[in-house]
């Protein structure tokens, strides 16, 4: 068990208060980065050492660092929210710590103990506290912890040196059009992950394998791509970086079961709980795309949405595939979708009671 501390090594900010205010007025998603980053190193010999908060800036790595060649890398995504009293909170970070440990095991990377993960978030957000958007809206400070094989070695084996960083980025809506119904392309060409692969690990490779599908989606005028299972190309897995859910006219909320090729989303889990709380019956099940489109056409599936930390909850208005197109409900933003979204963001921003104890003060 390591107990890393993350002291701030340098207090000078690289960006002015004016530049920061300009960014915070319109943060976008993932475009702007804060003044600091948090770092620790692991070696097979010494374990985790050297926690520190340093100025945000380029990394110096050997071109032979294993991550460049064999993609031994994992990451996480969380958000920090400012509440009305000025305090700063994040949401269920222990779940991200545990998922990062599971991802690390799958990618043969070292596990970062939960307390060190939490300490790294606290140190990073404390250093960059002025970058946490003001209370009263949904903007947040997106937190991106990541870990990669930095050992300079071209043999194929688990690296003996690994670096862990946390960077932060002020965030507004994930999709460029804001919270508007998405057009989703169903890829029958590409799969995101296969049985026994890394689909349930949050590793860069899964996202790399989604990119061509996302490009194909854009060529069909769609905002997102939905991947089907790699074996039969029939059952729904997930979108390029989000889980997917459907609401039926008889009060059920359905989402693909966790098969090992789907990411176990923290937002996914939270929505299932909130849905249960309000009397919707959650169903985690195999969902074939034909079954879904039949029920959309028959009016039994009335709403669908994408969900994830970055995307929060975003309605899906239409599916397109080589077989045809289907409008979900009236193609707009579903009532239950928007009300779940309001409840979730309300808990996160401190305006709705946190009855499950999900908030963690940073
Ligand atoms: C997140 O939702 O935090 C992710 O890591 C997914 C990515 C699409 C930004």
TrEMBL record:
Pathway: Amino-acid biosynthesis; L-valine biosynthesis; L-valine from pyruvate: step 4/4; Amino-acid biosynthesis; L-isoleucine biosynthesis; L-isoleucine from 2-oxobutanoate: step 4/4; Amino-acid biosynthesis; L-leucine biosynthesis; L-leucine from 3-methyl-2-oxobutanoate: step 4/4
Protein name in the entry: branched-chain-amino-acid transaminase
Cofactor requirements of the protein: pyridoxal 5'-phosphate
GO molecular function: branched-chain-amino-acid transaminase activity
The enzyme's E.C. designation: 2.6.1.42
Domain of life: Bacteria
Catalytic activity: L-leucine + 2-oxoglutarate = 4-methyl-2-oxopentanoate + L-glutamate; L-valine + 2-oxoglutarate = 3-methyl-2-oxobutanoate + L-glutamate; L-isoleucine + 2-oxoglutarate = (S)-3-methyl-2-oxopentanoate + L-glutamate
Pfam families for this protein: Aminotran_4
Family membership noted in the UniProt record: Belongs to the class-IV pyridoxal-phosphate-dependent aminotransferase family.
Alphabetized UniProt keyword annotations: Amino-acid biosynthesis, Aminotransferase, Branched-chain amino acid biosynthesis, Pyridoxal phosphate, Transferase
CDD domains named in the record: BCAT_beta_family
């Amino acid at each position: 068990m390591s107990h890393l501390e993350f002291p701030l090594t340098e207090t000078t900010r690289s960006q002015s208060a004016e530049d920061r205010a300009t960014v915070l007025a319109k943060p976008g998603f993932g475009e702007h980065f804060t003044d600091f980053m948090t770092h620790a190193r692991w070696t097979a010999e010494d374990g985790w050492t050297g926690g520190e908060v340093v100025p945000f800036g380029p990394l110096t790595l050997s071109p032979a660092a294993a991550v460049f060649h064999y993609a031994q890398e994992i990451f996480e995504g969380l958000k920090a929210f400012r509440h009305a009293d000025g305090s700063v909170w994040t949401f269920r970070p222990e779940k991200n710590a545990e998922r990062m440990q599971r991802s690390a095991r799958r990618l043969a990377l070292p596990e970062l103990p939960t307390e060190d993960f939490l300490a790294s978030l606290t140190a990073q957000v404390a250093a960059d506290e002025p970058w946490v958007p003001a209370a009263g809206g949904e903007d947040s400070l997106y937190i991106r912890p990541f870990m990669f094989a930095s050992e300079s070695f071209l043999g194929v084996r688990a690296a003996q040196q690994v670096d862990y960083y946390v960077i932060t980025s002020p965030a507004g809506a994930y999709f460029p059009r804001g919270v508007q119904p998405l057009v989703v392309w169903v890829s029958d060409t590409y799969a995101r992950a296969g049985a026994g692969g890394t689909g349930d690990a949050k590793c860069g490779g899964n996202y790399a394998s989604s990119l061509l599908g996302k490009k194909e989606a854009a060529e069909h005028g769609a905002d997102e791509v939905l991947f089907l299972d790699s074996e039969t190309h029939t059952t729904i897995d997930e979108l390029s970086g989000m889980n997917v859910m459907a609401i039926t006219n008889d009060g059920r909320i359905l989402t693909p079961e966790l098969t090992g090729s789907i990411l176990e989303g923290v937002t996914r889990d939270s929505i299932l709980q909130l849905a249960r709380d309000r009397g919707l019956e959650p169903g985690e099940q195999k969902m074939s795309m034909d079954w879904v489109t039949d029920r959309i056409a028959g009016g039994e599936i009335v709403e669908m949405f994408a969900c994830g930390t970055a995307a929060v909850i975003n309605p899906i208005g239409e599916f397109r595939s080589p077989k045809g197109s289907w409008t979900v409900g009236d193609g707009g933003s579903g009532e239950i979708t928007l009300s779940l979204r309001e409840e979730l963001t309300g808990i996160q921003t401190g305006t709705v009671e946190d009855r499950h104890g999900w908030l963690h003060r940073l």
